[in-house]
Specification:
It contains 20 helices and 14 strands. It has 536 residues and is α/β, with parallel strands linked by helices. α11 crosses α12. The chain is globular.
Length: 536
């Protein structure tokens, strides 16, 4: 089975699907499935735009609304996770996953599904330690804090995923697992993104929660995005017991969706030839959701997941074969996910713009049906009840707004030493949206394909790469600066890289005037990293 994997989509669905169509037309390669690793931007209307945590100048409608309205339909089954540039109000309607448009499926805060026998999991959002142990308490209309915390990973999602015992074929996260860069060509990565050096050398770049999941799940493939650079790694896992067979994970981070960027990857994945073409629930995952339902929290109080430390009567929520069998019997052994997409908001109409449209908290019928079927808590319904009782968000919002007023900044604090969990990391909320002064893409030295000069597919077609049968390079080989493919692309760009680095050596830290005495690095989207919001 051919699987296409994309990095940050940023709402450019037409671009993605046109690229897949071009792939089929020119090279007779038709993917059976498309995966997107976050920043999908399922924006339906102007209200959704207001729920994206970016300055106003970056809020563009893009093309998702055409698929939401039914004007267009995704030509291939598309599965995606959330990132940090999302219409959070829309995705929040589907905490357990669901259809955001016909043939486009969101995995939820965390989720596992099956397609043609291939087990696909993922976790949405990015890691921030100060929100990690909170519940999912946010709901629209968001304030300057909750518009960001809404997409921050929570410990309950990681805990659920860690209850899985059966093998995972593919896993997606938006931010990279922390430490994964030590298993790939780190030298080339730092040549391309020199401002990562401090965090790489201190081992604080990326998500410690994702790293924890990588070591526990040990999937065959792990795909990420977020940092807008292509990077491959190979991680050999240690066996937990003498009986366990050695496992390895092929990691790939994808670039963002832009013309002439290597943002799509095609891989061949072994599948069950007897399986149908429908997207299916994963029975073990459903059983885990049922087992952990009592742990659902919709408050912003911090709390730890149950662990074997003498404080909890139960800490193991993994499920038995009997529990999985019960799920199968509940579904009459029909795991097909119903195609029950429903419009829950007005769709953008270019001829009738509604710039003052306000977001509202919506209970999605898909979630209602899913929770009723499996006896789960509807998180949004619980939040709504808390609001109506006056015991939840209303009071908290006032406190948060007061805090924002006192700091005068909507920028989130540094992840260093923010709590006692030991899970600190460098993981900026906004990554390089602005293409001014963009680095040249070092992953390919291609020219535009044309009828007169047909490209050699694997090296010249800049938007797509066919992954070889194996990404199995050892960590020593991957670290080698003579890695053929990366050197081929990077060698000719040294002059550009040098000038680009000299042009951008400023880092945001300390006070707004930069008086910390620490060398600063200016990222491409300086406006987003700055404390002042463009809305002001």
């Amino acid at each position: 089975m051919k699987v296409a994997v994309a990095g940050c989509c940023h709402g450019a669905l037409d671009k993605m699907y046109e690229t897949l169509e071009l792939l089929q037309r020119r090279h007779n390669v038709r993917p059976d499935l498309l995966l997107c690793c976050g920043d999908f931007q399922a924006v339906r209307n102007e209200a959704d735009l207001r729920c994206m945590a970016v300055p106003a100048k970056y809020r563009h409608m893009q093309t998702f609304y055409r698929y939401y309205s039914g004007e267009k339909k995704a030509p291939v089954l598309t599965i995606f996770i959330g990132g940090n540039h999302e219409a959070s109000n829309h995705l929040q309607e589907l905490p357990y996953g669901g259809w955001v448009a016909p043939n486009i499926y969101y995995l939820g805060y965390a989720g596992v599904v099956r397609f043609r026998g291939v087990r696909i999991g993922g976790i949405s959002g990015i890691f921030k330690s100060h929100d990690y142990r909170k519940g999912h308490f946010e709901c629209p209309p968001y304030n300057q804090q909750t518009i960001r915390s809404a997409y921050h990973v929570r410990n309950i999602e990681v805990f659920k995923l860690k209850q899985l015992k059966r093998p995972i074929d593919i896993f997606m996260s938006h931010d990279w697992p922390r430490s994964i860069y030590h298993y790939g060509n780190k030298k080339q990565l730092l040549k391309m993104k020199s401002f990562f050096r401090q965090e790489v050398e201190s081992n604080t770049l990326g998500s410690p929660a994702a790293s924890e999941l990588l070591q526990h799940l040990k999937p065959t493939y792990w795909f990420s995005a977020h940092l807008h650079v292509k990077f491959a790694a190979f991680m050999q896992h240690e066996a937990n017991s003498k009986e366990e067979l050695p496992k390895a994970t092929k990691f790939l981070a994808l670039d963002k969706c832009l013309p002439h960027r290597d943002f799509l990857q095609i891989i061949d994945v072994e599948h069950d030839p007897n399986a149908g073409d429908s997207l299916e629930y994963d029975a073990e995952w459903i059983a885990v959701l049922k087992a952990t339902n009592s742990l659902v929290n919709v408050t912003q109080s911090t709390w730890n997941m149950p662990e074997k430390n003498g404080l909890h009567a139960k800490w193991d929520y993994s499920v038995t074969e009997e529990a999985i069998k019960e799920v199968l019997e509940e579904l009459n052994h029909d795991l097909k996910i119903p195609c029950n997409f429903t419009l829950t908001a007005a769709c953008y109409d270019p001829s009738k713009p509604q710039k003052n449209m306000e977001p509202v908290h919506t209970i999605n019928p898909q979630t209602t049906e899913f929770c009723a079927q499996f006896g789960l808590t509807d998180i949004n319904d619980r939040i709504q009840q808390a609001k109506e009782e006056g015991s939840g968000r209303g009071e908290c919002e006032e406190e948060e707004e007061e805090e924002m007023d006192s700091t005068g900044s909507a920028e989130e604090p540094s992840e260093y030493n923010t709590d006692n969990s030991g899970l600190s990391s460098f993981n900026p909320d906004e990554i390089m949206l602005d293409e001014e002064g963009v680095d040249e893409d070092l992953s390919t030295c291609s020219v535009d394909p044309s009828p007169d000069h047909p490209p050699e597919f694997s090296t010249s077609f800049s938007d797509i790469r066919i992954m070889p049968d194996s990404m199995a390079v050892s960590s020593d080989d991957a670290m080698d600066s003579n890695n053929e493919e990366l050197e081929k692309s990077g060698g000719s760009k040294q002059v550009e890289e040098k000038s680009s680095t000299e042009r951008s050596l400023k880092r945001i830290s300390g006070d707004e005037n930069g008086n910390s005495g620490v060398k600063k690095i200016k990222r491409r989207n300086q406006a987003i990293y700055a404390a002042e919001d463009e809305d002001k």
